Amino acid sequence: MLQHRTDYRNAVQERGANRERLRQLIRSESLLIGEFTLASGQHSNYFLDLKKTMFHPEGAFLVSEIIYDMIKDETDVEYIGGLEMGAVPIVVAVSLRSWLDRPLKPFFVRKTPKDNGAIKLIDGQFEPGANVIIFEDVTTTGGSALKAVKAVREQGGVVKKILTVVDRCEGAKDNLARESLSLVQIFTIDDIAPYDHKNHRVVASKA
């Protein structure tokens, strides 16, 4: 029993350390301050380019460790995926991490059908009717996630939840809830930088 408690304590401490290191990487690699137009059409004084973190060797490792730890006990889920391109490095990294414990098969949803005559939007490892988890790198209003959800549901799939690295806290949770979907995040924007929720603006630099 004592060894079990020690192992559990060490695991909790390791998860906390991984999360803090990932937060630091996102701040240094992915947080840009300026004036931007987002995919949702909204204007913002900051932009989170999570691909800089997802394609960072340490960043990819940390994200895969954290996300796998979050979902490893959901044994009714065999597939993980999301909308191209933001979800692609995440689901591949998590799938690699899962291989020795409980393999999870990755897929991605195209924004438009392939131009070679194939009409399918879902590519990679996917089985119609399967239980899946949808991933995003950054979630704003939830619109991108819903595109992936729609494609999965059209194939008879069941989306168990949406998981994102950073929730910008601009309506995604409520929008997804209206579709009977839950959003689970590693971070909110408050974890990354001081944030004015009323005006949806970062109020201080990342320094």
By oligomeric state, this entry counts as single chain
Strand content: 25-35%
CATH architecture: 3-Layer(aba) Sandwich
End-to-end CA span: 44 Å
Which secondary-structure class do the elements indicate? alpha/beta
Rg, Cα atoms, Å: 17 Å
Largest sheet: 6 strands, mixed
Query: How many distinct domains?
Result: 1
Helical stretch count? 7
The percentage helix is 25-40%
Describe the protein in words.
- The chain has a single domain (2-202), classed as Rossmann fold (3-Layer(aba) Sandwich), CATH 3.40.50.
- Helices cover 39% and strands 27% of the residues.
- It has 7 helices and 10 strands.
- It has helices spanning 2-30, 51-54, 57-71, 88-98, 143-154, 172-177, 189-192, and strands at residues 31-37, 43-48, 79-83, 105-109, 122-124, 131-139, 158-167, 183-188, 195-196, 201-202.
- Strands 5-4-3-6-7-8 form a 6-stranded mixed sheet, sandwiched between helices. The chain has a two-stranded antiparallel sheet with strand order 1-2.
- Strand 1 and strand 2 form a beta hairpin.
- Helix 1 (2-30) crosses helix 3 and helix 3 crosses helix 4 (88-98).
- Mean pLDDT is 87; it is low at 4-9.
Which descriptors apply to this entry?
globular, single chain, 207 residues, Rossmann fold, 7 helices, 6-stranded mixed beta sheet, alpha/beta
What does the secondary structure layout of this molecule look like, with pairings?
Blueprint: H1 2-30, E1 31-37, E2 43-48, H2 51-54, H3 57-71, E3 79-83, H4 88-98, E4 105-109, E5 122-124, E6 131-139, H5 143-154, E7 158-167, H6 172-177, E8 183-188, H7 189-192, E9 195-196, E10 201-202
Parallel strand pairs: 3-4, 3-6, 6-7, 7-8
Antiparallel strand pairs: 1-2, 4-5, 9-10
